[in-house]
Structures are given as structure tokens and as C-alpha cells.
Design goal:
By secondary structure, the protein is an alpha/beta fold. It has 3 domains: about 230 residues, Rossmann fold (3-Layer(aba) Sandwich); about 230 residues, Rossmann fold (3-Layer(aba) Sandwich), CATH 3.40.50.300; about 120 residues, no CATH class. It is about 50% helix and about 10% strand. It is built from 27 helices and 15 strands. The strands form 3 sheets. The chain has a 7-stranded parallel sheet. A 6-stranded parallel sheet has the order 8-13-12-9-11-10, with helices on both faces. Strands 14-15 form a two-stranded antiparallel ribbon. β10, α15 and β11 form a beta-alpha-beta unit. The C terminus is likely disordered.
């Protein structure tokens, strides 16, 4: 270890890093994670670009564990490197959202790394206790802060502590593509992180992480912000494709901003796995949450909103529900941008994004699915766009391909000025003079692309997917099998709706529900005698089960049976919701034929053609049998109320007749008195 030529990026250095981290890491590090970590330990700045869920956070944990143990035990590293690693090294991580800070803090602590997320809630608690949060922060190994906090006076005062100043070993910028997207729009602090780097010790390394740095202006802007030039940093670029994720592009039936009901989202209620719905409008978010809660109150407690207005307790409860292994995993998270980047939630199997503004945003939101990979598993992403957005995208692409300006295509717009704004803007999301978001050129090309995968490879300059195959156990298990004669590995095919239409989970689910809930076929034509016999039977049924109370009681019993059957058989029928087990049509059939259902066989015959399994019908028969005592009680009460009302009506009619007869006697008496008075007056006059 005393060799002056030792480098961490050598085979010996890689072996040393594995030894230092294998005890605390719950996984074998990827080969590319070790390459990035060892280059950082060698003092090289790094830009690491890789797909969502490919282990970028694992690089941070790997570095933190290695430098922490080397700082405590300097004898484990060569003499030449001991002066480069302080006794208690600190890693400073700039995070875009509080939710990402909380997620990274929990994950790093699971690896025995002392991490601390400094956010507004923590600062408020420290202020109430009259404490300086930076005194506590100096004891942590990894500090998770916002870019705005790096510009604050509190951080500037903390840097005046020379001990803490020299302990800052590494500056990490997570989701560095936001430096290009957000710095010119609403978070200027993102553009000043490069200045923060200049305020730190010259020995402080730099690590930039992202999955969506587009080639061209975004890439150039990031290098310029951090003063990186070709040759003075490591640019490890891996493909950001996720071939196991199917992207379905579809049209919105109505504008979410003007809607209060969202029936096109009702199919996600009650499905196994976690579903995330992304919208950039907070008002729309609240409307969606209320609609989903009212659409199926049984799952109202599993529908959670995620935005920046939530308090820390609510967010922690949401993340605990998502992380809990024993949970039913039917959680629905309706979120703004707070869950767009970096959040690692297991069991997310589908994402719905409503009108994303940029291609990067769509990829980041879709990157929340399938964070725990296994061979053969797939996930779904549904991108909803309005028809007007798609038409505008075609116009923009046509104008751009023709070599003209791609500004406002409207007849009243100034194409030249808007074209200049789009070309000169160092942002990914564009806005017109009124501040209203407009479609960016990269998103326009994505919408009209014949193959989404090829367009993604073009815009992000992706290398071949299977380039430099990783030899860790997880990656080896995911690699496609090859024959002995042909060992070449080709890129996986595109499974999105552009290349494989009509095969999404939503399409299969809606089709299966349509078959289950479809009305029965029209009955055959009957003769007059058969119609008369049928009417007699129906009349008998109506006499036996005529009251609204009895029908309502039995209907309530059958509706409550839906949830029981769903809990009992839901694992085997993952695409079904409770109404599929006892459809409304089946309930009406049972109510109309209740007293003719003598045996389970009669019940099966009456429900034939409605798509119900035999085991479901057996449970329905048991429920009907158990409901008879209560049904008779309700029927008896109904009859008693009817008899009472009949008696009361009879008494009222009798009293009315008596009153009418008394009224006639009074009228006769009054008329006789009047005649007598007239005779008296006549006699007086005479």
C-alpha cells in the first residue's frame, strides 16, 4: 500500500473499495459505479450519465463508505493518499426537492452512513429550540441541502470554520440537468452552484449525476457552469434507455385544467402495485385526488397527494406507506414535480404523466417505475397529450425541417421573435411573453417520432445499450441469453405504443372489464303462450319481492359481497376491480329471480353468460342463503308498515266521510232557520 504509483482506479484500488464497502452495502456495486467512485477518490471531477434506477445513488453511498472508513483508519490506504482524505470527511449534496432529500437520507442511513437532510422543516424546529442547525450538521458524513441554502448566510458562516471547510471532500449535484432547465425560469440558485464550488477548497472534488442531459445546448451549458473542459474530467455516459418500460402515448379526452371529473383515470383504482399520476398544476392535482376518492371510497385512504405544500409529517407517512412491505400496494400518488426526480419508491409499476413540457421531464417521471429490476418484468408509462398539442408539434417539426423558424405557428404570432427566444434560451421549458408554457422543439420531435426509442437515442446521443456489460450479479441476471454459436448481444426492441400498439395494461384491463360487465345478449323471441307464462311468473316474483325495502336490503348485501370476493380472489385476478366480481346486471338478475333460485344450479343457469367464475357464484349462493333471515325480517316489517298505513288511511277516509255528513246536517239546519226568518219579516210587513 505504500506504492507511490497506486491509483484507486487500478485493479488494486477497485479491490480495496469493494473490501471497504461490502460489509455495509446491501448489494454488489456495479462496475461503472466503481469506476466513478475510484476516479473521484483519485481526485478527478466526474459527470455520470445513466438511466433512472441504474444505481447513481449507489455511487454516492460507495464513496461515502470508502472515505469514511479511510478517514477513520488511514493505515488502510497508501501513504501518498492519506493527506488527501481528512479525518472526518463530509460530502455536500445539492438536491432539487425536499422529497428527494428525505429519500436519500433514509437510503444512506440504511447503508450506515450518517446523512442529514437540512430542509425548511428542520430549520424551523431548530429555530424553535434556539439551536444552530449547522453545529449539528458538522457532525454528519453526508449533508443534503438545496441550492438556495448554499447561497445563504448560514452556509457562508459555516465555511468560516476552517476545520469544517477543509473537511468538505466532495460536492455532488444530483439531477444536474435541472441546472439547464430551472436556472433561467424560477430557481436561479441552480445556476449559481458553480460559484459555490469556487468557494470551497481547491481539493474538493465534483460529481455531477443525471439521467437526462441532452446533447447540444444542455450539455454545453452544464460544462460551462462548472468550468469543465474536455480532458479535465471523466464523462461516463451510459444509455438512459429502459427497454423494460412500455410508454403508451394517448390523447386527453378533455383538458385537465377545465375538468372536475377524470373518468379516463378511474381504471387505476384498486390495481395492484403503486401508481403515480403527475400533473404540473396544483389545482388539477387537488381535483384529481378528490375525484379518485369519491369514485371509490373504499380506497380513499390509499390516495395521497404529493406537492410542496405538504408538511414533513404527511410526506413521511406517505413514504412509509409506499415502503411498507406488508402493505397491499394499491397506493395512488398524485404528484407535482416533487416526485419527478430521484425518488426511489419500490413497487411502482405504472406512471401516468399529463402533458409533460419536455422530453427530459417525461423520462424522469417515467423513471419512477420498476426501481427493483428482475428479468422478465415490465412496467407501464402513460403519457397523455391534448390533440391541439400534437397538431402543434407536427407544425413545429414541419417548419423546422423546412429550415424556417419554429416559433408561434398562429397567424397572429411573430415567428421571428419567438424563434430567436427559443434558439437563445438556455432552458428546456420555454415560455412566451405572457409567461404561458409553450411546446419545446425536443418535445415536438418526440411527439411525432415514428419510434420513441430511436428518437430518445438521437436526442440524448445514447451509446449502444449493451455497451461495456456490467459483471455484477444483478446485471448478469438481466442480460439476455445467447447461444453458444452466436454470442453477440443486440439492443432490445422498442415495446412502446409507437412500435407495438394496443398491448398496454390499460387496454387489456378495459377489454377484460368490458367483457365481464357487458350486458347479456338479447333473449330469443317468445310465442304468445310463452310470453303469458313469463308474465305470470314475473307477477309472482313481484308479489314475493315487491317492496323497495326488501330489494334494497338484498342489493346492499350483494354490493358488500364485492369487496369480500375482491379480497379473497384479487391476487389471482389482478386486473379486476370489486364490481367485476358481482356486476350490477348480475344483481338485478338475482333480484328478479330470487324466489325461483332453489339450488346453486339454478343460480348458475340464471347468471350464465355474465362472465362470472363458478367459485364466485358459489360464494354468492352462500351469501343469498345467509341473507334469508334478515330478508324475512325486513319483509315482515314492510308488511306491518303497509298494514299500519292501510289502517291509517281507512281511518282517515272514515273520519272524512263523517265530517262530510255532519257538514250537510249543519247546512240543512241553517237553511231552515233562514226560511223561518224570511216568513217572520214578511208577516211583520203585512
Amino acid at each position: 500500500m505504500s506504492n507511490a504509483l497506486f491509483r484507486f482506479s487500478s485493479d488494486a484500488g477497485l479491490h480495496l473499495c469493494r473490501q471497504l464497502s461490502e460489509k455495509d452495502l446491501h448489494f454488489v456495486p456495479h462496475d461503472y459505479s466503481l469506476i466513478v467512485a475510484t476516479n473521484v477518490l483519485d481526485g478527478v471531477d466526474c459527470l455520470f450519465r445513466s438511466a433512472c434506477g441504474s444505481g447513481k445513488t449507489g455511487v454516492l453511498a460507495l464513496i461515502a463508505l470508502c472515505i469514511g472508513k479511510m478517514g477513520k483508519n488511514p493505515s488502510a490506504i497508501p501513504t501518498a493518499y492519506r493527506s488527501r482524505i481528512p479525518e472526518k470527511p463530509v460530502i455536500l449534496v445539492a438536491c432539487p426537492t425536499d422529497a428527494l432529500e428525505i429519500d436519500l437520507e433514509a437510503k444512506l442511513r440504511s447503508y450506515n452512513v450518517k446523512a442529514l437532510a437540512i430542509n425548511s422543516d428542520l430549520l424551523a424546529d431548530a429555530f424553535k429550540r434556539n439551536e444552530d442547525i449547522w453545529d449539528t450538521a458538522k457532525q454528519a458524513e453526508v449533508l443534503l441541502v438545496s441550492p438556495e441554502m448554499l447561497e445563504g448566510d448560514a452556509f457562508a458562516n459555516a465555511l468560516k470554520d476552517k476545520s469544517f471547510f477543509h473537511r468538505i471532500y466532495l460536492l455532488v449535484v444530483d439531477e444536474v440537468h435541472l441546472v439547464y432547465q430551472w436556472s433561467k425560469l424560477f430557481r436561479k440558485a441552480y445556476g449559481n452552484i458553480g460559484i459555490t464550488r469556487n468557494r470551497l477548497d481547491k481539493k474538493t472534488r465534483l460529481l455531477l449525476l443525471s439521467a437526462t442531459v441532452r446533447s447540444g445546448p444542455p450539455y454545453t451549458h452544464i460544462l460551462k457552469t462548472f468550468n469543465l473542459t474536455s480532458g479535465n474530467f471523466l464523462d461516463l455516459h451510459r444509455s438512459n434507455r429502459r427497454p423494460e418500460v412500455r410508454v403508451t402515448t394517448t390523447f386527453l379526452p378533455t383538458s385537465p385544467a377545465s375538468s372536475y371529473t377524470f373518468p379516463f383515470l378511474s381504471w387505476i383504482i384498486g390495481l395492484r402495485g403503486i401508481t403515480i399520476v403527475f400533473t404540473r398544476n396544483r389545482t388539477v392535482l387537488l381535483r384529481i385526488v378528490l375525484y379518485l376518492m369519491r369514485a371509490h371510497p373504499t380506497y380513499a385512504h390509499l390516495i395521497r397527494k404529493c406537492d410542496s405544500t405538504n408538511d414533513l409529517t404527511y410526506d413521511k407517512t406517505t413514504f412509509e406507506m409506499a415502503q411498507r412491505e406488508s402493505h397491499e400496494k394499491r397506493l395512488i400518488l398524485v404528484s407535482t414535480a416533487v416526485l419527478t426526480v430521484g425518488i426511489d419508491i419500490p413497487s411502482v409499476v405504472r406512471v401516468i404523466t399529463l402533458e409533460p413540457l419536455t422530453f427530459e421531464q417525461e423520462i424522469q417521471e417515467g423513471g419512477r417505475v420498476l426501481r427493483r429490476k428482475s428479468k422478465g418484468t415490465t412496467a407501464e408509462v402513460y403519457a397523455y397529450f391534448s390533440k391541439a398539442t400534437y397538431d402543434r408539434a407536427k407544425e413545429i417539426v414541419d417548419v423546422d425541417k423546412a429550415g424556417k423558424s419554429h416559433g408561434n405557428i398562429a397567424k397572429t404570432g411573430d415567428k421571428r421573435k419567438l424563434h430567436q427566444r427559443l434558439e437563445s434560451a438556455d432552458v428546456g421549458m420555454h415560455a412566451d411573453q405572457t409567461g404561458k408554457a409553450i411546446l419545446s422543439l425536443d418535445m415536438a420531435y418526440r411527439l411525432v417520432a415514428d419510434c420513441l426509442t430511436k428518437e430518445q437515442d438521437r436526442q440524448f446521443d445514447n451509446p449502444p445499450f449493451y455497451q461495456d456489460l456490467c459483471t455484477c450479479p444483478m446485471c448478469l441476471s438481466l442480460q439476455p441469453t445467447t447461444s453458444e454459436s452466436d454470442t453477440s448481444v443486440t439492443d432490445p426492441p422498442c415495446i412502446s405504443s409507437c412500435c407495438m400498439p394496443g398491448q398496454s395494461e390499460r387496454d387489456r384491463l378495459l377489454q377484460s372489464r368490458k367483457e365481464v360487465l357487458a350486458p347479456p345478449p338479447d333473449p330469443p323471441k317468445l310465442s304468445r303462450i310463452e310470453i303469458r307464462q313469463r308474465n305470470v311468473e314475473r307477477r309472482q316474483q313481484q308479489l314475493n319481492l315487491a317492496g323497495k325495502e326488501t330489494r334494497g336490503y338484498l342489493r346492499d348485501r350483494l354490493i358488500s359481497l364485492r369487496s369480500k370476493l375482491f379480497d379473497k380472489y384479487g391476487d389471482n385476478y389482478t386486473l379486476y376491480i370489486p364490481i367485476c366480481f358481482v356486476p350490477d346486471q348480475a344483481i338485478e338478475t338475482i333480484l328478479d329471480n330470487f324466489f325461483l333460485l332453489d339450488t346453486p344450479k339454478h343460480l348458475r343457469e340464471s347468471l350464465a353468460g355474465q362472465g362470472l367464475e363458478a367459485e364466485w357464484i358459489d360464494d354468492i349462493w352462500l351469501e343469498l342463503h345467509d341473507s334469508i333471515p334478515g330478508l324475512l325480517e325486513v319483509h315482515e316489517k314492510h308488511c306491518e308498515d303497509k298494514r299500519r298505513k292501510t289502517k291509517e288511511a281507512r281511518d282517515r277516509n272514515k273520519a272524512k266521510k263523517m265530517a262530510q255528513s255532519l257538514g250537510k246536517d249543519v247546512e240543512n239546519t241553517q237553511s231552515q232557520d233562514a226560511e223561518g226568518q224570511e216568513d217572520y219579516y214578511d208577516s211583520e210587513v203585512e
